[in-house]
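It is worth pausing here to work through a concrete case rather than discussing structure prediction in the abstract. The textbook approach is simple: state the sequence, then state the predicted structure, then interpret. We follow exactly that order.
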Amino acid sequence: MKHLIPIAIFVVLFFLVYSIVVSAYSSMWREGVIWGSTLEEAEFYAGLFAILHDAIGILLVIPLALIIDRLGRLQTLASLGLALGVVNILIGAVNDYISLLILHGLQGLFQLAMTLVIMVIIADTLVEFNRALGYATYYASAVLGYPLGIVVGTTIYWRIGYALFGSLIAMASVAAFASIFLPIKGSSLLRVLTERTRYSISLGIKDISSKTALAIWIIIFFWGIPWGAVSAYAITYFRDVWRFSETIATILALIGSLSMVVGHFVGGWLSDRGVKMGDPMSRVKIPTYGLVIGLISMLAIVAYPAFISDINSETSPHLYVAFILSAIGMLFTTIPYSSYAAILSEIVSTKFRALAFGIYMMASGLGWALGPFLYSHLKDIISPLYAMTLIVSTWIIPLAILRKIVSKHYLSDRLPGGGSMEQS
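Step two, the predicted structure:
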């Protein structure tokens, strides 16, 4: 599992550069690089970068999956990693909005390809009882990278930030490639990771469309809806509904992010431990337990202000309640993530894993995009509190699918040894 360390660094870096613009757009606007006669207009034009990123993820992930398999997985990791580094260096050098928009589109495209190939390589290079922890490493690195990028955009001149971290991405991609390539040189696993394969989408979908795979794709779609809304509006919700200051709201969101990192590793470790001890159904049990506790906690933190009249008092016990519920809710609702990915990796043959994870990422992207859209419209119709309560409640759907479908069909759909290629 040593190769996960350079991969984790790589993931932190490419999520970091993605979020630099969140806090640096005002500086870009003052230099005339982002359009807008006011800062509010500039925020809109900067927001188009994220919209373009999400659109690329939804529309192009399936073709990218086919391209990755035709190029070879390790080749993709190395070449597009270098390309992603170059794109970010160029972002720091441009002086007009159109070039900035195009380069952010390429950034999203290459980052999407990197994410997809890393998800597949984790499955290809780790045995079944290490795989959830492998996915936990990816997810935790992504969670860490995003806020670090906001810090970088606030503290470092944006041109220097993009140039510096773009260079680090290029170097990290080489390190990640070497950490995978050198230990398996001459092995059958290397042939799998570098093999160039061609197949039709219809043939691939027919092969991967088990009941468990369909269930996981549906789960990850509904899973993304609350996550998209919570991630986009957590600070706003704490400020407007709990009536906390911007500072307290930001601290609460930060606590939630740190809890997510812990939740990823706890969920991955527990899931893998169960498999190692001879209980593959831990892949279903651990997410179920985590989701039940997390759902109760998240509903509590969302609905709590409805029952308290002096909620705006930051010196009251309500503040401590918010801290505790935020930590518990985000930790436990994060626990299932790595098991979802591990389950999918264990029911799909190596040849079609890129396609299977492409559909997985497309479904996740749709959910994450739909969540903020629903909340932004519902909050003006039924109030922010009831809108967020309704959206968070949709986590009941993944819970039901886990219990009714995945628990019944997972073992029969599961490949021998979880489809492991190599002991790790």
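Step three, interpretation. The domain at 1-198 is CATH 1.20.1250.20 (Growth Hormone; Chain: A;). Residues 241 and 383 are 10 Å apart (CA to CA).
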